[in-house]
């Protein structure tokens, strides 16, 4: 659904955008807060446009102000609570990676935990403690993880005996070493001639690149020392108190979201032993608490054809200049279309417009196509890190915004009472 009733539009030009005020479509300004709220309640629309993946959501807000959607964007980035590792207690680390670097890497590992089931961290003085003192840690506000990994000489000798020491696997580890899924990867060596078979006209470049990488991996020297990779899947959750009962089921399973995040590399004789404590926090305190990879919005395009475009020009517009925005339809013989024309372009999906403005390079199309942007219609995109679905994050953002509005109303009422 596309709304075209907007007081101000942004006309897209070759050098940017310019505002166009149309008094014929401008609604009357509200004369009271009640009228404003009534108009917002009656006109506001929210529609889901697409769900590309479980962690992605694209929706549209109609008849709202920029301040509203920008507030949601900022709340999603910085004010939705999540759980992340805050304190790391290292008892042994003989690897090449420094303690503080290892702790930093652990803090950035996304944790699958529902922050709504945890309390805020309050210290012994009853204050929200952001320091490293953990006097107030308990099973209601802290999750405990343990990491104990070692690279033994026996593993190195076993790898050397099988002839796989130092050879990379298709996942970037070493052949013969355990990958995050617990399976060993086998390296397949092929001659250069086999790469010629990868060039196919109808295969996408990503598939070709992956096949080429798997068929012709880089070969390290055979005497390269054995290396063990430490992944986020090696983190073990240690339930405290009644956490095993509270965090039960696949929906509330406590674990790293992505098991294949590389934390460190160990050589024979090296080991790591540590305990990590995770807390509830928000992105305003640290980016590791942000629940979204990105949250963004753009103005809805409004695409018009000032006059019809036919045949070759229509094909270029549909397939080259603005793919997905227009479509070809047959012309009507004996109708309003000029005789001798086969097809023409019509507007099909303005949502697909990326504002590339490539059509402006074509003299005929530049005069035929007009693109504006509706200032009260927004396309909003949310990509979750994975601990919560985008729909849940949006609902939480609306609750945070509601609390902010209530706090502001309470402050204004208190100020008015004090002035009386």
Describe this structure in words.
The chain is an alpha+beta fold and 420 residues long. The chain has helices at 33-43, 66-78, 99-107, 153-162, 205-215, 243-246, 311-321, 363-368, 390-419; strands at residues 8-12, 17-21, 45-50, 56-62, 82-93, 111-112, 143-150, 228-231, 236-238, 255-256, 262-266, 271-281, 292-305, 326-330, 343-347, 369-384. Strands 1, 2, 3, 4, 13 and 16 form a six-stranded antiparallel sheet that branches. It has a four-stranded antiparallel sheet with strand order 5-12-7-9, with helices on one face. It has a two-stranded antiparallel ribbon with strand order 6-10. It is flat. The model is unreliable at 167-201 (pLDDT under 50).
SS elements, strand count: 16
- Category by helix and strand content: alpha+beta
Strand count, sense and barrel status of the largest sheet are: 6 strands, antiparallel
Head-to-tail CA distance between termini: 49 Å
- Ranges where pLDDT stays below 50 over 5 or more residues in a row are 167-201
Q: Secondary-structure element sequence? A: EEHEEHEHEEHHEEHEEEEHEEHEH
What fraction, in percent, of the residue positions are helical?
A: 25-40%
């Amino acid at each position: 659904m596309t709304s075209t009733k907007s007081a101000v539009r942004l006309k897209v030009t070759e050098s940017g955008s310019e505002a166009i005020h149309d008094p014929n479509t401008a609604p009357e300004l509200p004369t009271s807060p009640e009228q404003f709220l009534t108009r917002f309640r009656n006109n506001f629309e929210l529609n889901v446009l697409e769900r590309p993946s479980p962690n992605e959501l694209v929706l549209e807000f109609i008849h709202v102000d920029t301040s509203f959607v920008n507030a949601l964007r900022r709340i999603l980035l910085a004010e939705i609570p999540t759980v992340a590792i805050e304190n790391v207690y290292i008892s042994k680390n003989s690897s090449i990676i420094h303690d503080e670097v290892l702790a930093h890497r652990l803090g950035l590992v996304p944790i699958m935990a529902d922050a709504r089931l945890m309390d805020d961290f309050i210290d012994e003085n009853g204050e929200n403690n952001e320091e490293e003192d953990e006097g107030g840690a308990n099973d209601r506000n802290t999750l405990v993880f343990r990491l104990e990994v070692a690279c033994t000489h026996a593993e190195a000798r076993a790898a050397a005996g099988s002839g796989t020491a130092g050879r990379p696997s298709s996942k970037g580890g070493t052949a013969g070493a355990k990958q995050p899924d617990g399976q060993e990867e086998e390296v397949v060596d092929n001659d250069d001639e086999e790469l010629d078979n990868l060039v196919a006209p109808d295969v996408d470049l990503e598939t070709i690149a992956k096949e080429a990488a798997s068929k012709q991996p880089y070969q390290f020297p055979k005497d390269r020392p054995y290396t063990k990779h430490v992944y986020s899947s090696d983190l073990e959750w240690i339930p405290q108190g009644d956490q095993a009962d509270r965090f039960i089921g696949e929906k509330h399973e406590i674990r790293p979201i992505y098991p294949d995040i590389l934390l460190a590399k160990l050589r024979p004789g090296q080991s790591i032993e540590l305990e990590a404590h995770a807390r509830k926090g928000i992105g305003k305190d640290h980016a590791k608490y942000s629940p979204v990879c990105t949250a963004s919005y753009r103005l809805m395009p409004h695409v018009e054809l000032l006059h019809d475009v036919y045949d070759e020009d229509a094909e270029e517009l549909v397939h080259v200049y603005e793919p997905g925005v227009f479509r070809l339809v047959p012309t009507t013989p004996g109708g309003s279309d000029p005789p001798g024309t086969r097809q023409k372009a019509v507007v099909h999906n303005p949502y697909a417009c990326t504002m590339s403005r490539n059509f402006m390079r074509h003299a005929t199309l530049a005069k035929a196509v007009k693109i504006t942007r509706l200032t009260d219609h927004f396309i909003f995109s949310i990509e979750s890190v994975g601990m919560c679905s985008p729909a849940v994050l949006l609902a939480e953002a609306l609750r945070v915004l509601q609390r902010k509005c209530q706090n502001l109303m309470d402050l204004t009422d208190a100020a008015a009472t004090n002035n009386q």
